[in-house]
Design brief:
alpha/beta; Rossmann fold; Alpha-Beta Plaits; six-stranded mixed β-sheet; 11 helices; 34% helix; 28% strand; elongated; binds adenosine-5'-diphosphate; binds magnesium ion
């Protein structure tokens, strides 16, 4: 194939290269290389203080990077900040609501800020209210809405100028399970409408079924970026085998700990949780050592680390 005839690679929705931010002597974000493709519903995950808000604020042009670059749909967040502001909708982690304002008044106000002509504004406001399921609350005072509804109103606000890229900082935090599910359903609908969405969370499992890709950061560094399933494959510290013996549990623990393939044995609710060094290891030795010692094996079951456990281990620095 003639390389000159190949189309240029598409511009990613978001791309950061070596993105770094310091606060005084403290490095909040360290050489972050991140690519989010168009149409992604992208989970940005890290425990508190990992650097999520810092990253999103830089992408939203609210905060200047100390080094490195960040682009949104090809626009540089420092040099082309205005262009970036037009294509993004940024929902901060905490935003004030105007409690004494009516829902439509509030959205109309932001529509005016984005210079949407008066004639069009009513339709635009109705459309975004429909999208977030708040049509019935049009005339309600914001202060009278539930927390879940206020979050959805916040989402409606960032949709008012029809941005292509949404930056949502922990939009589901503090919501009850039902409100969270409603929020997630709206995000899926927005993805279906062609938006690119970055959503941050400190709970990996919250995003595992929602997002097609995730990035995990810890202490300002990227430790994983890719499909959700890859998190487990790449980071899982090993295979877990659950074992139950009839008697002499202590003896079984001792024997298992002597095996080089075994990296840990602990008692959890009457069973032994045996962690093997890796997934590829032949774990027949577990049954073998127990049976050879004349102990009675009642149960042996293979398990994989739960996704949340993998995440906790990763973010506690127990892997690598
Ligand atoms: N304005 C600031 N001044 C000093 N340190 C800050 C400031 N904002 C954030 N930090 C620090 O930067 C780190 C990353 O914070 P942040 O981006 O808010 O993380 P996250 O959103 O993942 O919880 C934290 O250690 C935090 O204390
Ligand atoms: Mg934050």
């Amino acid at each position: 194939m003639n390389p000159e005839s190949a189309p240029p690679p598409p511009i990613p929705a978001v791309q950061t290269i070596g993105l770094t931010r310091t606060y005084g002597a403290m490095t909040a974000l360290s050489a972050l290389d991140l690519t989010v493709n168009r149409g992604d519903l992208f989970g940005f995950i890290g425990s508190n203080g990992a650097g999520k808000t810092t990253t999103l604020r830089i992408l939203a042009t609210f905060l200047a990077p100390s080094a490195g670059t960040a682009k949104v749909l090809g626009h540089d967040v420092v040099r082309d900040a205005n262009a970036v502001r037009h294509v993004i909708g940024y929902m901060p982690d905490f935003f004030g609501v105007y409690k004494d304002m009516e829902v439509t008044e509030y959205l109309d106000f932001f529509g005016a800020c984005y210079k949407i002509p008066t004639a069009q504004r009513e339709k635009t406001v109705n459309d975004v209210l429909e999208l977030v399921g708040l049509t019935e609350k049009k005339g309600a005072l914001i202060g009278a809405l539930s927390r879940g509804m206020q979050q959805r109103l916040g989402l409606a606000r960032v949709l008012i100028h029809d941005p292509q890229v949404l930056l949502l900082d922990e939009p589901a935090s503090g919501l009850d399970p039902r409100a969270r599910i409603e929020m997630m359903a709206i995000l899926q609908e927005l993805q279906r409408l062609g938006k690119t969405i970055i959503i941050s969370s400190h709970i990996l499992s919250e995003l595992q079924t929602l997002c097609n890709r995730v990035a995990i950061i810890e202490k300002g560094r990227l430790i994983y970026s890719g499909p959700v399933q890859g998190v487990r494959d790449q980071m899982s510290t090993g295979l877990v085998i659950w074992v139950r013996v009839a008697t002499e549990t202590e003896r079984a623990i001792e024997l298992l700990r002597e095996r080089p393939e075994v990296t840990g044995v602990e008692v959890v609710e009457g069973r032994l949780k045996v962690t093997m060094a890796s997934h590829d290891i032949d774990h027949s030795c577990v049954a073998e050592v127990i049976v050879r010692a004349g102990l009675k094996l009642l149960e042996l079951q293979e398990d994989e680390l739960g996704l949340e456990e993998v995440f906790l281990r990763v973010t506690r620095g127990e892997t690598q």
